[in-house]
Amino acid sequence: MPHRSRTTTAAALGAALLGGGLAAAPAAAAPPARPPAARPAPAAAAGAVTLLTGDRVEVRADGGVVARPGPGRTGMTFVGQRAGRSVLVIPRDAVSLLAAGKLDQRLFRVDEILAANRARRSDAVRLIVAAPAGAAAARAAVTATPGGAARPLPAIGALAVSAGAGQAAALWRGITADTGQARQLRGGLGKVWLDGVRQVSLDKSVPQTGAPAAWAAGLDGAGVKVAVLDTGVDATHPDLAGRVAAARSFGTDTGDPGVDKVGHGTHVASTVAGSGAASQGRRKGMAPQVSLLNGKVCASEMCDESAIVEGMTWAAEQGARVVNLSLGGSDTIGEDPLEQAVNGLSARHRTLFVVAAGNSYGLGQVGSPSTADAALSVAAVDGAGQVTAFSSKGLREDGAVKPEIAAPGLDINAARSAQSPGSGPYTTMSGTSMATPHVAGAAALLAQRHPEWTGDHLKRALVAYAKPTVGTAVHAQGAGQVDVAAAVRASVLPGTASVNFPRQLWPHDDDQPVSRSVSYVNPGTAPVTLALRLDMGTADGTPAPSGMFTLAASQVTVAPGTTATVDLTARTAVEGALGDYAGTVTATAPGVSLRTPVGIQRDSERYDVTVRTLDRDGLPAVGLTLMADMAGQMFMATSRPGVDQPQLRLAKGTFAAAFISIPVDGTKPAAFMVHPAYRVSRTTTITADARITRPVVTRVPHADARDLGVVMAPTFTDRPSETALMFGDSPRPGGASMYVGQLGPKISYPHLRTMVQVTKLHPEGDGRRNRGYGYNLAWAVQGRVPTGFARTVSGDQLATVTTDIADVGLGTGAKFNMAQMGTPMMSMGVSEALPRPYVMTEYFLNDSPDLRWQSDTMEGTIAEDATMLGTMDTPRRYEPGRGYFEKWNRGVFGPAVRSDDAPVRMGQGTMSICPALLDDGAGRAGFGTLAGTVTVRRDGAELGRLDELCGQLPVPAGTARYEVDVVARMRDLAVSTETRTRYAFTQAPPAQGEVTPDAAAVRFSPALDDRNASPRGARIEVPVLVQRTGAPGRLKSVTAQVSYDDGRTWAGLELTRRGDGRYTYQAQNPAAPGFASLRAVVTDQAGNTTEQTTIRAYRIG
């Protein structure tokens, strides 16, 4: 069963997500001898992601957010919200599925997807698709998508699904169906989750747990299987020789399970089972004779959730009594796939999952999957038994006790993998990752003592007999520090590991007493009388008010072979502090002392806010509610007609609130309503009635230009982290594009500014050299969200831009123009597919002095097997009355070096490779559907290879000469069909932080026509620009060559220097049609070189 019932369809998108959200992490280990840093929130930094639907969202360096439809989806519009670092963008055709609970909200959390993609160094779309009844049909839908792949996850009745970014739109069409009103998941599919990432979070520490006393009793773990699911285990280490009974890798790119380049898994494994052979027995692990199962679920510090589920399933099916998970990530409302797997596998296989609580420092920050009911959640203490600052504290979001136990996790010295950075047989790490294997090893000793016990028995005994640190709250340490010596002597067990009360909602003056049973099991042959003591308090150690918590008896006698219970009653109507209360019931008898932790949440002042959404006919509609408080925490609720209306549980305060009403009849326009300052001070129902809205109507000089779409984007600047909203819609037959209205008082809000953007198009023209026209209009409305919007635009208010878009061989494409005003805001582009080549006249309105337009193109087919090429320009201003001429999609497309995006970076023991490969001849940033490989050599010997164009490899310490070869191919592109780049440099990985090796890129900018061709037989002059990551200064040499036979033969080009990094060359084009390929070599004064080759850089003829 889920660990907490979900009584509403609303979810908070703030606190937990701002602290890390989707990036799940094995509780990250810190560098040697240092405690781990707080896991940073996923930053909404510059970058772009592809959503599950195939649509693309860019987060700009200034915080602005731009959404664009994917291939074949040019009419798609979006709902968006940004608050601080959190960014949410939902395509319109996903709203109904989200409302039905069929889509994970994280699928649209752009900041989280961006963080996951950076961790993986991949932009592939990765999903977990629940398919309990129709897995075969679902797998067929996935594998029918070019590039799609599916792996079964039977533990949770799901599939792990992946597809390249260019195939995401086809995947979306494969797993969903258009019913004419709203999209639905295809038959047999239950829910789609994001396949997120989790992060991998002994001579003194082992005796601290009481292990030597257990060893003296003859316990060493013999005959017990313990699985370590981590970064792999170096079984060649002397401390682990002969201990690994089975090994397997999971996921798509984890590699050999016996290779641990991170070092985390080996360190963890030796804490469980190390013999101490490399230290004459001093650094022996907790249970040195266990049989280890090595499940490699992490390719680096980051681990795919689907791989973790696969590893958990394998470990349980292999007969592991104990599974160590030194990994995790932020907890979310409800039961996520990892929590589901922990609970299900624990019940089916009687396995105990011991899981790191996380390294997030604060209260209420315990990470998933340690938050699963069946998991044993582990905090970290230092050598004196004090909880470390970094260890995540409880309680769970519903008031349940998590973490439940603690163990040494600071400066733990254990085995070092030979493949990881450093030297010597041992290394020091800190984190709850290091605490967890101490508890897993203790559980193995207990399992050897009691082979008949289930995982739940092991958990109850370990928690009950833990040793508390005086003055430390249960919120931080659970029952206390693991004491395996006491646990193996246990003569009485609690009936449950902890006692958890349901959350007590505000207000509390009418709270009724709630009772739960504290139970004790006596497996012995003589009765035991236990004296009971109850201690409850807040996280800061303040005792609970008198009378708030009471036991029904001060002692209880447990007859042999029976269970006895005592009622514990919570009376939260008693006046006292709000928040989480936790404590213990301590039971003592001669030779017996055990504790049962207790947790309850006495809710702060919050109220139920119910949202009722109506369409413009007064009928129930599909509703989406977005709210943001003054601190930037975001909340979302969704609803469907005929289903219970959504409830938000909100703290007292003022919220920016947006309501989207989407008629069940998909042919009618949606309505967008905003209450700029909705005050929550009581339980209430909001009726978002679209009948108050009015249409957006604009008139332009060309009356036959039709609306393509309208964007309404309010931004609030009266809060520490600015909140921005966005809603876009496209016209429906016989109606306006959008209806809009402001709820609440008709007053001006000085900190509110709304951008209204309207896109119009008349694409018809004269064929190949089409002269269609479009209008791009934007206005700033100060102090309000307009209720209806009507404007007439005259010609003298407009700038005129002649836009000439060349053909790159993909047949069709779209151009998007997005308005940006002043403070970072959200916007989206609306377009439709147009033929290539294409010339059009575009008119731009600049209503505000700080208005800028960002323009992009997206080239690609609408076929299922979509190839995509996009280019992105920087924002610019168009002055009214002026004319402009712009050329797009001209080569040479190729590698680039950008100030914020170096092709190669080196960290401690790692090299990250992710070059920009598709910038155009004008210097616009490019992206697209690329395939290729990366090969890295160190001092001439191959160090590693990647089968995708972004990735990470481990590198040894010390200075060496590196060669990084990147080969990229663009299928279906007529020009720049292949690039080959070699970055050669001398560098050592840093001891900490990150360095950027010197690298270069060469941009060729020939004058090309609308087919990317240069005239046959013509003599041409070509500008050349050298970009560099290193410090400015004169280069040692720059050379260039040209080939007219696809690189079989080359001729030198004479470069003329025109300034810093700028050159030109002249060349005579052949008389026959064909292609020109280009090669350049750049060498700096330090001997670092970049060799860049572009095959079929442009056409001849």
UniProtKB/TrEMBL annotation:
Residues 221-480 form the Peptidase S8/S53 domain. Residues 1-29 form the signal peptide. InterPro entries: Ig-like_fold (IPR013783), Peptidase_S8/S53_dom (IPR000209), Peptidase_S8/S53_dom_sf (IPR036852), Peptidase_S8/S53_subtilisin (IPR051048), Peptidase_S8_Asp-AS (IPR023827), Peptidase_S8_His-AS (IPR022398), Peptidase_S8_Ser-AS (IPR023828), Peptidase_S8_subtilisin-rel (IPR015500). One of its GO terms (biological process) is carbohydrate metabolic process. One of its GO terms (molecular function) is serine-type endopeptidase activity. The active site is at residues 230, 264, 433. Keywords: Hydrolase, Protease, Serine protease, Signal. The keyword Isomerase does not apply. Pfam families: Peptidase_S8. Belongs to the peptidase S8 family. This is Serine protease. It comes from Pilimelia terevasa.
